[in-house]
Amino acid sequence: MSLMDPKNDMAQAGEDKVKRNRAAYNAKASSDFYGGAGWVIGLFITLFIATPAIWLLLQTATRSTFNDRLLIGISIAWWFNPLSLGALGYIASNIRAWRFWTIFALFIWAGVNVLVSAAIVNETARILIVNGVLLTGYILFGLFVLYIQLRVFLWAAAGKAGRFFFGILGWAAFNGLVYWAIINPVVLNAILIVLAFAFQILFAIGFAIIQFVAIFWFMARSRVEIIRPGDPKTITFDDYKGQPNLLKMVRQWISLLSDRTQFQKMGGQFINGLLLAGEPGTGKTLLAKAMAGEAGIAFISMEGSGFRAMFWGVDVLKMIRFISQARKLAKEYGACIAYIDEIDAVGMSRGGVMGGGMMGGMGGMMGGGTGALTRLLYEMDGVSELSRWEKLRARWYQWRKKPVPPRDWHILFMGSTNRPDVLDPALTRPGRFDRTVVVNKPDRTGRREIVKYYLSKLQIDDSVDIEAIVSDTAWATPARIMSAITKDAVRLALFDNRDKVSQHDIELAFQEQAMGLENPVEEMQEDQRRQIAYHEAGHAVVQYHLRPDERIVRVSIIRRSEALGYVLPVPNYDIYSLPLRTFVADILVSMAGHVAVKLFLGEYWTGATGDFQNVRARLWQLAHYGYFGPPLDMQVSAGIGKDKSDVVEKFWRKLEDQTGKILSKHSAEVHAVAKALLERNDLTGKACIEVIRSAANGAEADDSGPLLKALVEETIVTGNGKDAKKAKKGRSSSTATPKLKPKKK
Q1: Over 90: is that where the pLDDT of 636 sits?
Q2: Coil, strand or helix: which one is 410?
């Protein structure tokens, strides 16, 4: 006898729950369809069959038979009106599900139609039916009044002596007043006058309240996306590619969303919230939708900025409306994911804590404050509290001395942000957003899976190289990969009069993603083109020799976005940590364009602004990692001090001189690349490398390791504040920490 695996049991139960949810959704959709079809058929019959038939019938009627024929025609047409056939279609679509109740509903449908038809044709039947309806109404009203009196009497009798006395006194006075009004017309008239006046006052107040509520209800409406199980927009984990380890982690929560029976029997409490953190485009929203689709539950989402409002209190109304919709979906489908995209827009830290600033306090005057956040915190804490109906049901089970069944629905709150550091601490504590899931850019394996997935949806030719695409997209997020392959590459192929996407289309698409759309300058002076060509040639040659771990994809002097030219390198493999000499190499590459112009054209030109920004960024990173002494905090915007400024300036000049030496050594290669750019305007990485090697007589790239290590040894500042070169000569005999004293010129 074999024992069943509990995990398999939970998985099977989850699948059964998904099937039931989808079946219920399909049944509801089928009922709605047949009901709507019946309504349309009834409208068609009424307008184009019944109405002309009655008109023709009346054309041959005499004055004495006109009314009889009209009433008979209307009574027959009533059976085929849109309301009647719509109800019949709805009932007929549920024959299998309702069984006995379907037959009962058909009897009610037929009985109502018979009574209405009889009331139309026969005046006596009409009087009897109206009197019967009035009598039923009187009986129901009398029962309602009796129920109210009984509730009041029980309320008074269950209280203390004072409440009992005044409650019974009020109850007796009310009944006495009713009896007096019945036997005395004058008293009845006075009571009716008072009630009419009170009704007018209440109507005026109610009308004003309704107007006020309607205005705020209209302002509280925001765009909400709802995906139900079985909806065509539903996606599952089969549609989420590139993060297999992440999917393994969330599958546990998914299985609990589908079936929580065993989990609840063990006394477990399900998590309230999951926070997805990651840079834009990594697939946070797609993951939340896939979780809902995989579990077979409902999904509701709203932008964080959608909760903002101009007037105070409207943001709270929006949050209440959003949560109430999530509760309704959870009760209908067993569970629901309530997802808030860019949750930092509504969950920013209050009172300037953890970077929240003072915007929350200032914005509260005009409705941009923390009302929605406070309401969200309240709802997340109270999601497990019983509603009024659940409390009544619990009392009923307790009165019957039976165990109260656990709640069979749950709301999982999810949010996404690329700024988790600015969120309010109250939002991220356990019990609210219990877990923070970091969604990173996919690694090489993940990118390969994503590229294959999107390429499978396209018509591609034999030139497409999946591995080349994967290598060139280490910088790209899944959203960028999807956009480049399925949108830009297809567009480029289509407008080139081809029905299949090529590798060249995909490469150009990723270039547009990285550098912007191509916007060439039609007429440019030749000396300016020459300057741009030598600038980019300097970058390309130094990049080729100093960064063997990267390969050049394209070199161009065609304007894209704000850049008049560019060199686009990509890493040969995914990089997660680097030696500091790599930053030094990047600085040399960034300086190479500006230095090449001075070296080969005889003077400095403009156009190196972006290069200087890259150099400054690398210098800050080196300072952060302690290259110039004690590490600096990159978040602090204050200056680095005069001593360190002198060291950095010396370092800058040293690297600028070294860049000039490298370019002078490989001047033939620079001239060759510049000439090729002036002739072709654009070079692929392969073509650029061929030009460089041809100019170097086939020689391979220099081994940059010893050069960069020597530069680092010469320029790095050690922990005692001295250059590494000086530190080798000996240490100071003083025990005090020496100050940084760079060598002066």
Answers
A1: no
A2: strand
